[in-house]
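Before the break, one more example. Copy the sequence into your notebook; we will annotate it together after we see the structure.
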Amino acid sequence: MARTESTGSTWRYRWARRQNERRLRLFRSAEWSWRRRDDELRRLRTLAEQCHGSAAAGDGLLLELAPEEIVLRVVPAAQLVEVRHTAVLPAPDLTVGAPTGRLRHRLPDGVRVTDAGMAVITNRRLVLLGGRGRRDWAYGRISGLAHDAQSPVTLIQALDRRRTSGVLLPADAAAEFRFVLTLAFADAIEQREAVVAQLDELIAEHAQERPSRPSIATPGQARLSALIPGGRRTAVVAAALAVLVPLALVNAGPSDPTRQESAVAATPAPAAATGATKAPRAANSPAPGRAGPTSERRCGAPANPMGYDFCGGEKVREPDPGVCDHFDCVPGFWEGRGYLVQCENGKFSRAGGSPRACGLHGGVRRTVSG
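Here is what the structure looks like once it is written out:
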């Protein structure tokens, strides 16, 4: 027998079930992303304490170590790359970078492979033992260093070399290689404890961002607007049209039947019947020859009734509650504390302005305006 009780018809139970399934799905996605980042930070924290290397780790390598030089990491299948153009790289620092997402095994523009071999990180230098010879980068001579955010390439500028060069690594080994290289720099200036303290701070901050389990929706919370295709926004559109259509007819005047016919023809009445959510924009349609905010003037943004676009303007810091109905939002979207941005993989985040915005989605691509 259908359950009705004090909450009404069974549609309320169906609404509650769909809401709870949706909330649980979003929660599990956000929690999975959170746990992956937490595991990564704790793994790096352990590595920062245990990665001390040894001189014996260099046994079997065609590399003569200096006195008190120890090997921290050996990465096979590395390649030597050189940059065709002149570029100024940022100075090396001890910052633990945010996750860059999945790296693609491709070369950035202007970078070419010139040799292949293995990369060796010691406490004094980075060495590539290639088929054509050996390339050394002593830490004391490095003036610039940059890790590419899209590919597993690390570029290096040295004071004793005119041309910028670096290494291309296997994609699955790049993250650990970059962190061990940061530890090697820290060891060279006796600042490893600063890296450990930075990781402790990142772990503490991340623990505060853990997603909380969503509340349970009950049948009694269902609203009649849930029965209307398009929900509450469609009901608002229909009410607005009920007011605007008579006004348009009155403004046309009885002495001008042509204008009356134009007003009736321009009224998007079928949109209310089908649940279209763009009808309010029709009431404030732009002047002739000027692009409308939700169609022509989106500059590549998805169609949406809020008028959000990529054309530049005011940043969207308080998105419409229904924004994720029209945009592909990242997990944990509403936990963001910035402005609306699009990530490189096409998803949308509310963490614009944060250095960790779109960290798991390839970085920030562009800002949404509204």
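The first strand starts at residue 71 and ends at 83. The longest helix spans residues 11-50. Try to locate both features in your own notes.
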